[in-house]
Amino acid sequence: MSKLHISTIINGEPEEFLCEPEETMLDVLRDRLSLTGSKEGCGSGDCGACSITVDGSLICSCLMLAAESEGKKIETIEGMSDGETLHPLQQKFLEEAALQCGICTPGMLVAAKALLDENPDPTETEVRFWLAGNLCRCTGYDKIVRAVLDTAQEIREIK
Amino acid sequence: MNDANNKWIGKRTIRPDGADKVTGQATFGADTTMPGMIWGKVLRSPHAHANIRSIDTSKAESLPGVKAVITSVDVTNYPLDKPVILGIQDMRWMTRNVMAREKALFHGHPVAAVAATSQKIADQACKLIEVDYEVLPWVVEIDDAIKSDAPILHEFIEFEGKPSNIAGTLEHKKGDVQTGFEEADVIVERSFTTRPVHQGYIEPHACLVSVSADGRTTIWSSSQGQFMVRAMTSMLTDIPQSSIRAIPAEIGGGFGGKTIVYLEPLATILSKKSGRPVKMVMSREEVMRASGPTSGSKSTVKMGIKKDGSIVAAQGTYYLQAGGLPGSPIRGAVGCAFAPYDIPNVHALGYDVVSNRSKVAAYRAPGAPIGAFAVECVIDEVSEAIGMDPLEVRLKNAAKEGTKAAHGPVYPRIGYYETVEAALSHPHREIPLGKLQGRGVASGFWFNAGGESSSQVNITEDGNVVVTTGHPDIGGSRASIANITAELLGIDYKRVSVLIGDTATIGYSNLTGGSRVLFASGMAVTDSTEKVIVSLKERAAKIWDIDPEAVDWEDGYARPAGANAGMFDPLSLEELAERATETGGPIGAGSQLNTAGAEGGFATHMCDVEVDVELGIVRIIRYTSFQDVGLAVHPSYVEGQMQGGAAQGIGWALNEEYIYDSEGKVDNPGFLDYRMPVCSDLPMLDTVMIEVPNPKHPQGVRGVGEVPLVPPLAAIRNAIYDALGIRFYGLPMSPPVVLEALEQREAAE
Ligand code: FES
Ligand code: FES
Fold first, then answer.
1. Hey, which of B15, B209, B289, B740 has its CA 20 to 30 A from A116?
2. Are residues A14 and A74 in the same domain?
3. Is residue A11 less than 8 Å (CB to CB) from chain B?
4. Residues in chain B with pLDDT < 50?
C-alpha cells in the first residue's frame, strides 16, 4: 500500500509528512519528525508517556493513527516552552524536583498543562485523578502533584 | 558536614540535566538514530520449557530487507561446568539469558534475532524462523519446583546429591537459637508468601549499536552502568573491551533492572554481521515477559520474645525464585531480615530456586523487602502477644553502634534507633483513626555499597568547572555532585557542570546500584576536587613566590594564610585559570578509587490504611517514612528516593504480581493488568530525614535509594490488621484476596 500524505500543524508550525496507514502518531513524531520528547512506555495507552494534545484535547499519541492528524493542531512537549523561557509548570517541576529519571516528565507536563488550561484551580484530588493516566515509577507522585498545585496557584496570582 | 554554614551541600539546587528533561530534549535509550541504521527484533520462545533441537533461519535470511539473523551459535558460549564471574553475575547464565542455548527456559526466552531495514520486515522475518522444539514439562511455583518429582531445569545442578531446582543456599548464624527459644516467654512462628514483582521502569530497554569494519564498536544504551555494558558485551561477543565504547544514554528508570544486558550483545552481533548500525527497543510486553522481575518467595519466620520485650531468638527460612537461571537475591533476604535488631541468637537460611520464569534481576534492595516482610509481620504479632507497642519493641531491640549483626559486621555509628524514636514522637501517631482504618509500622535495612568509582575535575580556561563521573544518573546524582564540588571550591553552583563520561572518557566505575553512587562518586569527586585545590594553592604560591603551605583556599579564592605569609590580594579561580599556562599548565585532577565504608541504611515506616469492605480495596490514607539518610546532600532527591520507594512498596503490597496461565505464560504482561500505583491511588508521602552522618564518608553520605522499599510491605499488612483484625500472610493483598478473607470471616462467625 502506498504512503499517505498528511498536512498538519505541530507546535504552531505547518508540517507535512508521509506515513503508512497503520503508523501511530507517536511513531511519526519520534521516527519521522525527530520529535523524541514524546516517549513510548507501553504503546497501549496505559502509561501516558506519549501524551500530546490534538486540537486542545489530551490524548495518548500511541493510540492515535498518524493519518488522523490531517488538518489538526498538535501540541507536544517540544512546543511547551517559549524559546528559552520555560512554561511555569516546567520551571516548577525543576524547582520542586518533580522528576527523577525524567522519562515520564514530558507526558506529565503535557497532561498537567492540559489540566490547568481547563481548570486553573484544581484540588489535589482533581490533580490526582487527571494525572492517573500518567505513570511515574520514580517519584511516588508527591512532588509532581505539589508542583502542579503550586504552579496553578502561581498562575492565578499573576493573573 | 551539613552545618548551617554550608552554601551548597544540603541545598535544593536545580539539577544540571533538568532543563533538557522538562523540554523533551534529553536523549534516552530509544531517542537516537544513526545514518544507515536498521532495526533488530528478537524471536522468543512460545514454550515455558523446551529443548531446542534445531533452528532453520534460511527463509528469514532470504526475505528482502533482512540483513542479519543470529542464534546462540553467534553468542560466546560459557560451558556449564565452569563459573565465569563478572560482578555479581555468572556469564554462564548471562549468555543463556540473552539467547537460549540448549533449552528455552521460559516463555519469552530469546531464541534468535533478526536485523532488517524496517521494523515490519524484522517482525516478518522472525515469523519465518523455524525452531524445532521438544516441549518439556515445566514448573513455575516454588512449591512445585522443589517437589521430589519436579521437572528439573538443569541436570548439572545438584542439591543433596541429586539433580535439583535448588541452585544454592546461604546461611547466617549467630549464637544458638535452640537455647534462645528456651528463654523466650512467647514464641510465634508464621509462614509467608510474596509474588514476583517487576521493577516497572517506564522506559523499556533500548540500544543502538554500530560496529565498524575494523571491529570498533559504539554502544548507545540505557543502563545502570556503561562499564557493565562494555564488559558483558565484550564477553558475549569476543570484541575486546578496548574496542567498545559504551555511551550512557539518559536512563528512564532502572531500580536494579538495568544492571544486566539483554539487547546490547545481540545488537552488536547483528551490527557486526550486517555492517549497519542496529537499533533494538523492547516492547512493554517483552519487558514484562523477559526482563526482571524480582523473586517471588516463601518463608517461615520464628521469633522468641521475653515479657519485658527483649527478643531472644529468631529464625528465618527463605525460598526465593531465581527464574530460569540461578541467582536470586537470597543474600539480601537472609542478610537484611534481622539486621535492624540486636538479637543474641539468630539463624537465617536461604534457598535459591530455579523455575520456568524469566531470570530475576536486581530490584531496589534486592531480597531485603522479602526478608523484612516476614520478620516485621512476626514482630507485630509478638508485640501484641506480650502487650507492648510494636515501636517500643523495636526501640528496645534496636541495633546500635557495636551491635554484631548476624550477617557479620559490627555496626559503626548507625541511625536505626533514631528512626524508631522519631516515629514514636511524630504527630502522625496521634492522628485519630476512623472506622475501618488502621495504622501499621515496620522497619528495614539495606547494606549499601561502595566499590569502584572514577572522577575527573577540570578547571576550564575561563575559570569554571567541569566534573565527569562514570555513573548513569538515575535520580538526580549530578545535582548532588555539583553541590559537593561547589561547596568544596567555594564557588557558585551554577559554575559547575557535571557530566557522565562514557567508557572511553572516564575511568572504570561500577554500576549505579546498591545505593552506592553518591557515596562512592562523592568520595572520588571530593578527592579530585581536593587535588585541584592543592594545585590552585601551588599556583598562587608560585605567583606570590611564597610557600604553598602559606596559601589558604577560601570561598573560591587563594589567600595568604596569615600576616606572616605576606600581603597579597586574593586570587580568584578565574584569575588562576587565566594564568594556568605560566603556572604549570592545565588545572585538573582525576581520582580512581575502590571505596569502602558505605555502612548500612535503616528506615522505619508508618502507614495508615482504610479498607473498602464492599470492594476489598485497601487505600493508603497517610504515610510517613523515617530514614537515617546520613547526610542529605540534596534533600529533594533524598525525599524523592524515600517517596518513590514507599510507592513501589505500596504497589508490591497491594496489587502487583505476575499471573501465569495454564501454559506457563505470563497472563498480565502490560500496565493495564500489571497494576502499579497511579497518582490517584496514593496520598502525599511524608518524609522525615534523620541525619546521622556516616563517619566513613567525607560528607557523611549513606546510600538512601534502596532501604525505602524494605519496610512498606509489612507496614501496610500490619495496618490492615489494625483496621480489620485480619492478618494476611501473603502478598499482594489485592481486592479479591481481601474480599475473600472478609467473606471467610463472615462465614466463620
Ligand atoms: S506509550 Fe502511549 S500510553 Fe504508554
Ligand atoms: S521520574 Fe522516572 S518515571 Fe517519573
1. B15
2. yes
3. no
4. 1-2
Does A23 share its domain with A54? yes
Q: What is the model's pLDDT at position B244?
A: 98
| Angstrom distance (rounded) from CA B732 to CA B735 | 9
Whether residue B581 is contained in a domain is answered as: yes
Ligand 1: nearest atom to the Cα of A50 = 2
pLDDT of the residue at B514: 87
CA B567 – CA B544 distance, rounded (Å): 9
For residue B680, give the chain A residue with the closest CA.
Answer: A128
Is B202–A104 a contact, with Cβ atoms under 8 angstroms apart?
yes
In which domain, by residue range, is A26 found?
A: 4-79
**Number of domains comprising chain B:** 3
Alpha carbon B22 to its chain centroid, in Å, reads 25
User: What pairing do the DSSP bridges indicate for beta strands B110-116 and B103-104?
Assistant: unpaired
Residue found by looking up cell 539463624 in the block: B347
State the CATH number of the domain containing residue B739: 3.30.365.10
What grid cell was written down for B3? 552545618
Q: Decide if B201 and A145 are in contact by the 8 Å CB cutoff.
A: no
Taking only the tens of pLDDT, chain A with its 159 residues reads 689 999 999 999 999 999 999 999 999 999 999 999 999 999 999 999 999 999 999 999 999 999 999 999 999 999 999 988 999 999 999 999 999 999 999 999 999 999 999 999 999 999 999 999 999 999 999 999 999 999 999 999 988
DSSP state of A85: B
Question: What's the whole-model pTM score?
Answer: 0.97
Alpha carbon B552 to chain centroid distance? 41
- How far A70 CA sits from the closest chain B CA (Å)? 24
**Quick check: A18 contacting B, CB < 8 Å?**
no
* Residue B202 Cα: closest atom of ligand 2: 3
Touching check for A145 and chain B: CB below 8 Å?
yes
> Who among A42, A49, A140 is closest to B643 (CB)?
A140
The residues, any chain, with a CB within 8 Å of residue B304's CB and separated by 6 or more, are B180, B181, B183, B184, B186, B187, B311, B312, B313, B314
Q: Do B679 and A139 touch (CB under 8 A)?
A: no
pLDDT tens digits, B316-330: 999 999 999 999 999
The answer, yes or no, to whether ipTM is higher than 0.90 is yes
Shortest-distance ligand to the CA of residue B200: 2
